[in-house]
Design goal:
The complex is a heterodimer. Chain A is of the alpha/beta class. Chain A is 53% helix and 11% strand. Classes of the chains: A alpha/beta, B mainly alpha.
Chain lengths: 640, 289
């Protein structure tokens, strides 16, 4: 991960920086400085786009200058050789590059971090090679470069002077507004979710592939826009201005400014564009300075300029008590430091948990009614899963009655988590059937047996897989989106504010239901204790509004009091939905479960009433390990 | 036709050797070294400076150059990579990219005007003819050096204590540390190793590529493609991938042009990663949830 923390609500800081530029344009500054500041704004557009991809999605890219180059060439060719009107040429060029990037992105988004660094690095070389090569020399004029036609609005020349300056400022303003909308909307939360874990995003119905592709195309679109604007100002473009080294410098702008902050990259662009001129240094030293700046940021200030400014700012914010005004709405990061210290692990959550009565059930969130449904809530038959040579599940099956808490127990490697993964849609089913509420959701050979969010199934994880750079409340809203698939475009334009407010209300209800007190709703998930994180994870699953809740080790790592609290919560959940829970703790299972299935080496060896099942010799043998495993239950290496 | 093949294989072996340097470091630290090409360049530049500009004996210049690069590798590790090395692999990877920029800018400044410069010949300009096969002494020399180096490393990794420690750290850094291996010293050593290996490649390549700050830029891409195709963690695979890339590049260049050969290798690289996202011999690391 390039940065663990992608910030929320950075709009004021980013807009303030744009305002500084806008005001500076009114001052009597020299034409040279004015041009440099305009160039800064143009680079900032590309750097902000890269921030969405690298800071918020956590994917490195060293090829975005290739898209800057393509945007610039696209404009020069369309407005020049193709003689399109300049404005149309600019729009077409950006649209074309975005489309190209979406196609190039298809293989790229499948690459792991290292493959992506390398692939994008390769890409920037490939772009300069194509632009300067002989193959397309009739259009690109090879290494000699192209003249760029000017653009005008009425009598104002937008390619130089003040006209150009305010063109850059307006485009930057649009980029800032769109990017802030992106990062603070559902689409932006999805970015951070995919960064946290692609597996979890699948269970929450967020497609990692689509999320990555959208971010890649968005960042490329901003890069291409920057390319058009830069070309306008330069008046002449050549391939070597968009090479791999410039791509690294573009990444440097985002990293030096601070990844995951929108405002940071603007400052970063200023550092890289204005410093060489301010220091009056020779061209040959400029590259050395840039490399040193990038290395300095990576080694010494990983949060970049934004982080440097943010820390004292937040301290001031906390001291003046302004925090209280916002705590109710969304909360600041400042809550983290204050509360994680004095809430010891566990003494805060159980209290409200035990006191909250069943009447606090959030009706808007949970509408399932298992009692009215006579079908089995969940039925799994003859599931077979092979991992290479290992058979993780060997014909396992179980039936969960509506409104029951069904426990799944067994030694390590018995296949418990694999079964949960099949039920929650993380593992494609190759043989066997799964039905939820009588509806077949997965069978071998059916399209539904592919990976994807299972309708009717919610899931919690053993290690609470919350998104660290989102608040508790925002984490829970990630569980909410189910049917309402709103497009990225709506999120970019900020059209979903009302839906967002409704979501926050529902999420707050779900949090209240599991017993997370109101003042903790705005706390970033990274600042939670394990017990709290588990509760938030359960709240997120409750918000998913499935009829079946699948829980993996909800009590692992918790103290006795916290375990009791989780039991009480599960008892209350039972009134609304059916629970399948994996646990290692036999005593706790006896307390919460009505039924238990014992799994060993991928097979079911016992099923029924917990008290009775745990007394069976076969089960005792598997758990306690007295004597060698019998011939019927080969459990190689499974007994601890 | 056969000429193209032998030259392509010799080039491929150079890629393989630089790939080997990258893989050694990748196994040790998990960081793909984007500065490897710059280190190779620096090796060639150092020898050029000593032998041509300061008229030193060529063998002495090469020895000094290799030692110098070894020291530089350690210095780079200590100054750039070691501080806050818990920042995560992406951060460390980008640091090597920063190093690439820095070393490029420094060599460019150091070499000054008039690049590229010609480099003294390392092998006699003769060729052996074996029936239809025509082998230049330079290609044979590259072959011999590649073979000797690989054999030496394979032996050292398997049969020496240092090799055992390096393999231990490569297999499991934390466990090796708990068992008493001085992980940071070993990492410094592998940086030195990488730098020396890279310098060997730079010196061998210099007579044909000529000496300039960007002499290895394009090769670096081919090397990384080779490393990925051969499997990121496989030392032998680096050579196999290197020869594959060398041959593909050589033939596309011969029948098409230089632009196409870069695109062809790029395509091969993407295809490999799509079929095997973790490289040909790599294994996916499972996620704990």
């Amino acid at each position: 991960m390039l940065t663990p923390l992608a910030r929320r609500h950075t709009r004021p800081a980013a807009l303030a920086l744009v305002a500084v530029f806008a005001v500076a344009g009114l001052l009597p500054i020299s034409p040279t400085l004015q041009f440099l500041m305009a160039t800064t704004m143009a680079w900032a557009i590309a750097a902000i786009g890269l921030d969405i991809f690298s800071g918020y999605l956590g994917q490195p890219s060293f090829g975005h200058c290739g898209f800057v180059g393509l945007g610039a060439y696209g404009y020069a060719i369309l407005a020049g050789q193709a003689q399109m009107p300049p404005a149309a040429a600019a729009v077409c060029s950006v649209a074309l590059v975005t489309a190209i990037s979406a196609i190039i992105g298809l293989p790229f988004i499948r690459l792991r971090a290292f493959g992506l660094v390398l692939g994008t690095f390769f890409l920037s070389y490939a772009v300069t090679t194509v632009l300067s090569g002989t193959t397309f020399a009739s259009i690109t004029k090879g290494a000699s470069g192209l003249q760029v036609p000017a653009m005008a609005l009425g009598s104002v020349n937008l390619s130089q002077g003040t006209g150009y300056y305010y063109l850059c400022a307006s485009v930057l303003l649009i980029a800032v507004v769109l990017s802030c909308n992106y990062s603070d909307s559902h689409a932006g939360r999805a970015l951070r979710l995919v960064k946290r874990s692609e597996t979890v995003s699948v269970t929450l119905g967020v497609s990692p592939g689509r999320t990555k592709l959208a971010a890649f195309a968005y960042s490329s679109a901003l890069a291409a826009t920057a390319g058009v604007v830069l070309a306008l100002g330069a008046g002449y473009i050549a391939p070597e201005s968009f090479g791999a080294q410039q791509s690294i410098i573009l990444f440097g702008m985002a990293a030096v400014g601070g990844l995951g902050s929108i405002a940071g990259p603007i400052a970063g662009a200023a550092v890289f564009t204005l410093t060489p001129d301010y220091l009056q240094i020779a061209e040959s030293y400029q590259q050395i300075l840039f490399a040193a700046l990038l290395l300095g940021a990576l080694v010494l200030f990983r949060d970049g300029l934004f982080g440097l400014v943010e820390t004292p700012f937040r301290a001031l914010w906390r001291r003046t008590g302004l925090r209280r005004a916002t705590a109710g709405r969304s909360g600041g990061q400042s809550l983290a430091g204050r509360h994680s210290g004095d809430d010891g692990a566990g003494d805060a959550p159980p209290d409200p948990l035990l006191s909250a009565g069943p009447d606090t059930t959030p009706e808007g969130v949970m509408s399932a009614d298992p009692e009215g449904n006579r079908q089995d809530a969940l039925k799994v038959d003859d599931l077979v899963i092979d991992y290479g040579g290992v058979r993780a599940l060997d014909g396992a099956g179980l039936t969960v009655k509506p409104g029951h808490v069904h426990a799944l127990v067994g030694p390590n490697g018995a296949g418990k988590t694999t079964l949960l993964n099949c039920v929650s849609g993380l593992e494609p089913v190759s043989a066997g059937h799964i039905t939820v509420g009588g509806e077949p959701v997965a069978a071998s050979g059916r399209p539904g047996s592919r990976r994807g969010r299972r309708p009717g199934v919610s899931r919690t994880f053993q290690n609470p897989s919350l998104v660290p750079d989102l608040s508790c409340l925002e984490n829970v809203t990630l569980g909410l989106r189910r049917e309402q698939r709103t497009g990225l475009l709506g999120d970019l334009l900020g059209l979903h504010r009302r839906a967002e407010r409704a979501e926050r209300r529902k999420a707050a209800q779900a949090l209240a239901f599991v017993g997370v007190p109101q003042h903790r709703h705005g706390t970033p998930a990274s600042a939670l204790s394990l017990a709290e994180a588990k509760l938030v994870d359960i709240a997120r699953a409750v918000a998913m509004n499935g009829s079946v809740l699948v829980m993996d080790e909800p009590t692992a790592g918790l103290s006795g009091a916290e375990m009791t609290a989780v039991s009480a919560l599960i008892a209350r959940l039972r009134a609304r939905l059916t629970v399948l829970v994996v646990s290692h703790h036999v005593g706790w299972v006896k307390e919460v479960a009505q039924e238990v299935t014992v799994l060993a080496a991928g097979r079911v060896i016992a099923s029924g009433d917990p008290e009775e099942v745990f007394d069976r010799p076969l089960v005792r043998e598997v758990f306690v390990g007295d004597g060698a495993p019998s011939a019927q239950t080969p459990v190689p290496g499974a007994i601890q | 036709m056969l000429d193209v093949l032998t030259t392509a294989i010799a080039t491929g072996l150079l890629y393989g050797m630089l790939g080997f340097a990258i893989v050694v470091l990748f196994k040790m630290t998990g960081v793909p070294n984007f500065a490897a090409g710059s280190l190779a360049t620096l090796g060639a530049v150092a020898v050029y400076e000593l032998a041509v500009r300061h008229h030193l004996n060529l063998a002495l210049a090469i020895t000094l150059g290799l030692v110098g690069l070894g020291v530089l590798g350690t210095v780079i590790y200590t100054v750039v990579m070691r501080y806050r090395d818990d920042a995560g692999v992406p951060n460390l990877t980008v640091r090597t990219l920063g190093l690439y920029l820095l070393l490029f800018a420094l060599t460019d400044k150091g070499l000054g005007e008039g690049q590229p410069f010609s480099f003294p010949r390392l092998f006699p300009a003769r060729a052996l003819t074996l029936g239809p096969l025509r082998l230049t002494v330079a290609d044979l020399g590259v072959l011999a050096i590649a073979f000797i180096l690989t054999a030496a490393f394979a032996w050292a990794f398997r049969f020496t204590r240092a090799g055992l420690l390096l393999r231990g750290v490569a297999a499991d850094r934390e466990t090796a540390r708990l068992l008493g291996a001085n992980v940071r010293r070993l990492e410094a050593a592998s940086w030195a190793l990488t730098a020396v290996l890279a310098a060997v490649v730079g010196i061998l390549a210099a007579p044909t590529t000529l000496v300039s700050a960007g002499m290895m830029d394009e090769s670096l891409l081919y090397v990384f493609a080779a490393v990925v195709i051969g499997g990121l963690t496989s030392l032998g695979g680096a050579f196999a991938g290197g020869v594959t890339v060398g041959v593909v590049q050589g033939f596309v260049h011969y029948y098409g042009n230089a632009d196409l050969s870069l695109l062809a290798v790029f395509g091969l690289f993407l295809l490999t990663l799509l079929v095997r996202p973790y490289g040909m011999f790599g294994e996916p690391t499972p996620e704990r949830l």
